[in-house]
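Progress against Task 2.4 (sequence-to-structure conversion) is shown through the following example record, which the project officer requested during the mid-term review.
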Amino acid sequence: MAETTETGKHGGFLRNPLVATQKSERKYAGIREWQAELSIARLFRTSIRLQTAFDRCFSPFGMTAQEAAVLVHCSEEGETSAGKLAQTMGRDKGKITRFVDRLETRGFLTRKSDPRDHRLLIIKATSKGRRVVPHLKMRFEEVRGQFFAGVLNVDIDRLETVLSQLHANAERLCGEGPQRRARLGASGAAGSTFE
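Structure tokens generated for the chain above:
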């Protein structure tokens, strides 16, 4: 049985808990803990690679995948606001505002005050933005198709179920994060690797 498995970010190896060595840097409670750690690492790596692939696909349009998604949403909605985009896309309003800023600078979007409420800015795709949207949608479909190549529909359904549960767990962790950090800070305990 091999002593190491996949390489880590800096070229190191994750130890296989099934092989006892004196050099073992980490002790695992069991195979589930070891597999969970590998799965988390794989999720992070997959997410980063997928984001890179998407961004490369949209770089010829002079935008990132996130900006392309914002433009598609704005075009489909007709008119919207940064708050609505943040809610629809599950993103932070500040990040959405930065994406809108860049898209507006390049002439893909406009922002104007709502005549009924001057505090609210209405975001709309320009004619230039609307012309490019069909090409952006086609790119999203191409990347999606390549990403799921060789994966059966039943596995995609199962993946969605698992990811939904993991997302709910992550949301719970985020909700408990600040209170937990405050408790740990008050007691002087060290935070976890991911905090």
